[in-house]
Predict the structure.
Amino acid sequence: MKRIVLLVATNFAVVLLLSVIISVLGLDQALAQEGLNVTALLVMAAIFGFGGAFISLLISKPIAKWSTGAHLIDGTEGTTEYWLVDTVKRLAERAGIGMPEVAVYEGEPNAFATGALRDSALVAVSTGLLQAMSREEVEAVLGHEIGHVANGDMVTLTLIQGVVNTFVIFLSRIIGYVVDRLILKNERGVGIGFYVTVFVSQIVLGVLASIVVAWFSRQREFRADAASADLLGSPRPMIAALARLGSLQPGALPQSFQASGINNTPGWMALLSSHPPIEQRIAALQARAPGQA
């Protein structure tokens, strides 16, 4: 609940900060003379920017189950399922969070955690992961996902996404209005220049925003790796799991959940990757406790 309050508070803080900046720069008065209500635009941008991110977070669990075909297990289905549920329960207790729902889905090696609340999350693993890894390695991956939940990473990423969404929506329309009214000298309402500029601006600003969000996402992966090492008492299992993943082809996840699963994008596209290179993650764990690696 505290994270939900934080989400709302951040929304208001961003709106307030942008309002102050616009007022100090005198943009509100200048654009008001051209017929644009900057305050109303800012409120609209915040509502849509944070609203979309917040709704996505609230419905993340049912969407994840539907899009991956994941089915919940309670441990009565077989020995593997019993071990999975028992391991997640033990790790959740160590992390101080409520027992997440546990699910399995058909596919190549991957795993993810999602959900709006720390005490009501979902942890899912693929059949490919269970087949390709030892139990110690799977336990390390589960510890990583529990780390995401305990760290509140889903809410944190939603906050960041909401902030950048607000900036993209707001700034693209400001740019569109300036181009349409001040550069193209359109004086008959909103012209085609506004719509074209807004469309192009949203693409450019959206790419820049994605780089920012992806950077934050990569930092949370390092923290979740560290959480796994803490929960298991050693970084060795997580290092072994990452090394194993480096030799496998991760299974694809739906676009809305790619940041939650295993990802290892090479080259310059790494700027837009939600996960750091596996080599960097292993090095970070080795540097954390050299004697145990």
The chain has one domain: 1-65+149-293. Residues 252-261 have pLDDT under 50 and may be disordered.
